[in-house]
Amino acid sequence: GEQLEPLRIQYKDYAVWQQSDEQKAQLAKQEAYWLDMFRGELPVLELPTDYPRPAMQSYEGRTLQLFMDSEKSEGLKRLAAENGATLYMVLLAGYTILLHKYTGQEDVVVGTPIAGRNHSDVQPLIGMFVNTLAIRSYPAAGKTFLDYLKEIKETTLGAFEHQNYPFEELVDKVNVARDLSRNPLFDTMFALQNTENLEIQLPGLHLSTYASEEIVSKFDLSLDVTEIEEGLEYLFEYATALYKTETVEKLAAHYLQLLESILRNPSATIAELGILTPSEKDQILGAFNPAQPEAAPAAAFHQLFEEQAKRTPEAAAVVYENDRLTYAELNERANRLAATLRTSGIGRETIVGILAERSVDLLVAVLAVWKAGGAYVPLDPDYPAERVRFMLEDSGAKVLLTQTLLRERAEAWLDEEELALAAVLYLDDEASYSEERANAPLEADDHLHECRPEDLAYVIYTSGTTGKPKGVMIEHRSLVNTAAGYRREYRLNQFPVRLLQLASFSFDVFVGDIARTLYNGGTMVIVPKDDRIDPSRLHYWISQQQVTIFESTPALIVPFLEYVHEHQLDMSGMELLITSSDSCSVADYRTLQERFGS
Predict the structure, then answer these.
(1) Same domain, 251 and 375
(2) Ranges of the chain with pLDDT below 70
(3) Which end of the chain, N or C, is less surrounded by CB atoms within 10 Å?
(4) Dihedral of the CA atoms 321, 327, 330, 334 (nearest 10)?
(5) pLDDT of residue 447
(6) 343, 374 contact by CB (below 8 A)
(7) Is 519 helix (H, G, I), strand (E, B) or coil?
(8) Whole-angstrom distance, CA of residue 506 vs CA of residue 504
(9) For residues 181 and 436, what is the distance between their CA atoms, to the nearest angstrom?
(10) Taking Cα atoms as reference points, which of 354, 416, 391 lies closest to residue 468?
């Protein structure tokens, strides 16, 4: 047989070189590069999952295989060559854009393996050279794909140039929060396999590859792309503890669709690049929208409320225990508070924090902030002091609206120099902020021009279970569209709307309750805090206030309806019952049908 060429070096020589002073000095320079790349707060990829993340990472997995024909594959290679990039860079850019589309995040870290054989002398050696690189990129929606590709090119070339720095050293050096449910630095990997697949020929033997079924997933999601004669092979490896097969099938189809969008228009912005397949577009435009719905009004929500207040001034807008405000009274109180907010510097899209217990004050505060042109941040009195301070500081709130019963707590929480609040106003002590304005509300209709449909309405913060809480910004037009959709889908103009309000003020369901009620001239019945999980008290409020709409989770609704059934209580006035937020088991669904179905 053929004689192998003698090796110029052995693996032990490589090991000695690794420990040399020259190499240690070089690694120190590489360490500086990587620490600079991973300075600041590190992103955590929040891909939506089908199942809750296990407390400890499970490595059970499956794979999904797709193919791209040679014509499109060659198109991607041409696109890369025309822009001084490689196929790897184009595919990686597409993958990080897909992750951005799924999460909305504009700071993404993806792992990539590297062979580590970057010198000809180590090519024939048997030994461990592989390393992992963490590629951090910023796929912002407003960038064009070609501009983003340039960034990916620069980032990956820098990473390859500094590839000898061990990944485990980087993990030790950066400030990464240890979490047994996740991998450090990244939860997804990308690789392109383009090495030549040589056939091994041995005398008297015929050799062929044998495909083995992968039942392990080292990460949440990984993508391996392989160049084959027919084009490109895409292999998605995914954790079955997090994803259903059909979810990954859809994600994979979206990736291929995204690559086609890039080929059609590489100059498009990332926001303009589409991921929906033709069948999904048909479903959305056809099956989900069989008829052109009535357009939502082009106005801010409080403007529509004011129109409703003129139509039904004496109708009850909100009830809490013995407190009751008509539409005219709610509008007048909100106007007076809005006037004070303006003198405190609140204008278009200025942030106001609202810290209050359940009461009619909540609606007064929300409408007043909107009338002044601002946006609000809901703050739960049960939140830890650190979270309240963070939300006020992070949102840049200028004014805090609260209640006298929370005065001591609020003053203790706000003893922070960095909170640049212009004023703290007490909702239930109206004389303290609006006595001089009692007879001088906002000038007629001037508040209608302070806010546009595209202006910010409120900022609601995530739980922060995977890092710092993040503020989600919602515009007035989104709220108005939601209100119009509720009316259309639930036929809220066909019966009196009297809504049992259960959701916490800090949840966006509360805003949905406002949309369903005030947009339709209805009454919001705010249930006292301690009554919300008591079936007997819930039925009391439903009966006393003639409630027609009731929304909550299956965990509360099912026991409540069992209680109603057991005590043979009257629920004939209820028009609409909505279960939301959590999954509903088949058994619970059948119970709902039996107890309340039609």
Answers:
(1) no
(2) 1-4, 7-25, 115-131, 195-200, 211-214, 288-295, 415-420, 432-450, 465-466, 581-589, 591-592, 594-598
(3) C
(4) 150
(5) 47
(6) no
(7) coil
(8) 5
(9) 57
(10) 391
In a domain, 500, yes or no: yes
Q: Is 67 helix (H, G, I), strand (E, B) or coil?
A: strand
**Alpha-carbon dihedral sign for residues 241, 246, 248, 251:** negative
The CA-based dihedral angle spanning residues 250, 256, 262, 263, taken in that order and rounded to the nearest 10 degrees: -150
Query: Under 8 Å CB-to-CB from 552, ≥6 apart: which residues?
Result: 502, 503, 560, 578, 579, 580
Q: Which residue has the tokens 């060429």?
A: 5
State residue 129's pLDDT score: 43
Looking at the fold, whether 277 and 329 belong to one and the same domain comes out as no
CATH code, domain carrying 506: 3.40.50.12780
At residue 442, the pLDDT reads 46
Do residues 318 and 279 share a domain? no
Tens digit of pLDDT for each residue in 363-394? 999 999 999 999 999 999 998 888 998 999 89
- At residue 558, the pLDDT reads 84
Q: How far from 305 is each of 31, 79, 231, 318, 367, CA to CA, in Å? A: 59, 53, 59, 13, 9
Kindly report whether the global pTM for this prediction surpasses the value 0.85: no
Beta strands (DSSP E) in 422-488 are 423-426, 456-461, 471-475
Q: Which residue has the tokens 């697949």?
A: 197
Tell me the two tokens of residue 471: 């503020």
- From 235, 263, 286, give the residue that closes a domain: 286
At residue 175, the pLDDT reads 72
What six digits make up the tokens of 331? 């509008």
CA distance 216 to 474: 40
Number of independent structural domains in the chain: 2
pLDDT score at 116: 47
Predicted local confidence at residue 438, as pLDDT: 39
* Cα torsion angle, 353, 356, 359, 360, sign: negative
CATH code for the domain of 32? 3.30.559.30
Distance between CA 566 and CA 570 in Å, rounded? 11
- Residue span of the structural domain in which 106 resides: 11-117+127-194+211-286
Task: Report DSSP letters for 345-366, one per residue.
Answer: T--TT-EEEEE--SSTHHHHHH
**Phi, psi (deg, nearest 5) at residue 365:** -65, -50
Q: What is the 3-state secondary structure (H, E, C) of 299-344?
A: CCHHHHHHHHHHHCCCCEEEEECCEEEEHHHHHHHHHHHHHHHHHC
506/380 Cα distance (integer angstroms) = 6
Token digits for 388?
Answer: 């309240």
